[in-house]
Amino acid sequence: MSRPLYAIPGSAPAAGDAAAAVASTAAAAASGLAEPPRTVAEVLADSQVEAVLDELDRDLVGLAPVKQRIRDIAALLVVDRLRLAHGLQAQSPSLHMCFTGNPGTGKTTVALRMAQILHRLGYVRKGHLVAVTRDDLVGQYIGHTAPKTKEVLKKAMGGVLFIDEAYYLYRPENERDYGQEAIEILLQVMENQRDDLVVILAGYKDRMDTFFQSNPGMSSRIAHHLDFPDYALGELEAIAQRMLGAMNYRFGPGAREAFAEYLQRRIAQPHFANARSVRNALDRMRLRQASRLFADRERPLSRDDLSTIEVPDVRASRVFAAPTA
Ligand SMILES: Nc1ncnc2c1ncn2[C@@H]1O[C@H](COP(=O)(O)OP(=O)(O)OP(=O)(O)O)[C@@H](O)[C@H]1O
Ligand SMILES: [Mg+2]
To answer: How confident is the model at residue 322, as a pLDDT?
Structure first.
């Protein structure tokens, strides 16, 4: 399907080597392959990256600045591809990123799409995402951390390594913390193998800022900082509609309004986690709908019955029992 646009590490030619690029162009012509692309449209058609960008726009509610930044990164890679075809210097840009935001704001979801885009534009070979936390990288005993971290890096090579709550790697209160060892290995690989591995650090903004202050080496290797804001009420409602639709459910008369009221109350309560809380709420409403239908033993259930969330399925939530603040 999509041809890699950058050289695969270990195979000739290096992405930044103009002479090699020209040689490879000649080789492509000799072997009867199509001419190198000359227009943005040709690169887009060749890589099919536009489909992923459009899906990102369509599937994800809000997140305008995040979507724009991803388009910018895609544009850079496309233009680099065209530069390469002209024998211009097109060094693999550093694409390590940091996604900050509260729980449920879409960081993991966007990281998955990012991996696909990087793959389609030939930046990474495979385009998979390996999601880890401190415990996957750092060992309990002396000598355990390096092999653990290297094993994870091996798995992630050719794709994206997503480190959730990355700041837990650094524990200044613990003098001999093994996290430091993991950080050092990561730093090396982020520098030396950046054309085949993209690292995305994710977590709360304030903690990430503190982490970067204490780890300037890490900070200087991160090229893109993307902030994921909390969703507004209207966005959460739109997310709910989208999730329901994808599961072949819909709100019955009045249920959408009841859910909007639910959200208003839920946001004000502790541990509200944006789109994740919306998904969990919908799951509980489906449970209540099922129990309601289950109780009605003899009635033939229509397609409509089976796919409609009614007002009582929403209103039975505990959230309505608590007094509003
Ligand atoms: N903008 C959005 N539009 C539609 N669905 C979304 C959006 N953002 C998140 N979701 C959905 O919400 C759920 C949680 O999103 P995700 O796991 O990406 O968040 P996160 O920021 O990684 O959260 P956490 O910090 O808790 O890991 C997923 O099911 C995802 O599909
Ligand atoms: Mg996540």
So the answer is: 66
